[in-house]
Design a protein that fits this description.
This protein has about 210 residues and is an alpha/beta fold. The protein is built from eight helices and nine strands. The chain has helices at about 1-10, 30-40, 50-55, 75-85, 95-105, 130-140, 165-180, 195-200, and strands at about 20, 25, 45, 65-70, 85-90, 110-115, 145-150, 185-190, 205. The longest helix has 18 residues, at about 165-180. The chain starts with a helix and ends with a strand. It binds pyridoxal-5'-phosphate.
Length: about 210
């Protein structure tokens, strides 16, 4: 049903269906649910806590890809760098440096997104837009992390249309930062179950 919604939103906005990927969020679900979804063809899974993921991932099929979407403390960066393929929630230069170092030690390369607090809500993690260019420049110099784009979580709201200005702002800022830094920043992780259509219309490449 979610894939049908995604396909309809892609068709409406003139985007190819394969330009948006579905990240199935498996937090609070056990390995048997991941296994069932994987058997049905789902490949990308999202977790928001390192500890929960560390217990779950070894019990899941080896071919699936793991994305960290929750806030990450630097003291868990070593574990995260071994467990995850992507981290969507990089929100400081210090964390990015820690991920780079631990990914290097583990002989891996991590794909990362910089989380941006577009709304400025104090309860939300993510960098203020003014802080983003310095972190992008840092990421550009680090060998074991590849900054692939940006992530945001808009304020909670009943009406998905209320999220549109935040999704649009992330895309517009991305266009500016990509031009400034030379990074492609092609990935936009935005949109959840209730507002994924609006996110796709505004350019999401991952919906969660
Ligand atoms: C839990 C979570 C989601 C999925 O939320 P739904 O409301 O189930 O769609 C998406 N993104 C993040 C960052 C989450 O923590």
């Amino acid at each position: 049903a979610v894939r049908r919604r995604m396909a309809a939103a892609c068709a409406r906005s003139g985007r190819p269906a394969e330009s948006v990927r579905l990240l199935a969020v498996s937090k609070t679900y056990g390995p048997e649910a991941v296994r069932a979804a994987a058997e049905a063809g789902q490949v990308l899974f999202g977790e928001n806590r390192v500890q929960e993921a560390a217990a779950k991932i070894p019990e899941c099929p080896g071919h699936v890809q793991w994305h960290l979407i929750g806030h990450l403390q630097s003291n868990k960066a070593a574990q995260a760098a071994r467990l995850f393929d992507w981290v969507h929630s990089v929100d400081s230069g210090k964390l990015l440096e820690a991920l780079d170092r631990h990914a290097g030690e583990a002989g891996r390369r991590l794909e990362v997104l910089v989380q941006v607090n577009v709304s400025g809500e104090r309860s939300k993690s993510g960098l203020a837009p003014a802080e983003v260019p310095a972190v992008l420049a840092l990421g550009n110099r680090l060998p074991h992390v590849q900054i692939r784009g940006l992530m945001t979580i808009p304020p909670l709201g009943e009406d998905p249309e209320n999220a549109r200005p935040y999704f649009r702002e992330l895309r517009e800022r991305r266009d500016g930062w990509a031009a400034e830094t030379g990074l492609e920043l092609e990935e936009l992780s935005m949109g959840m179950t209730h507002d994924l259509e609006v996110a796709i219309e505004e350019g999401a490449t991952f919906v969660r």
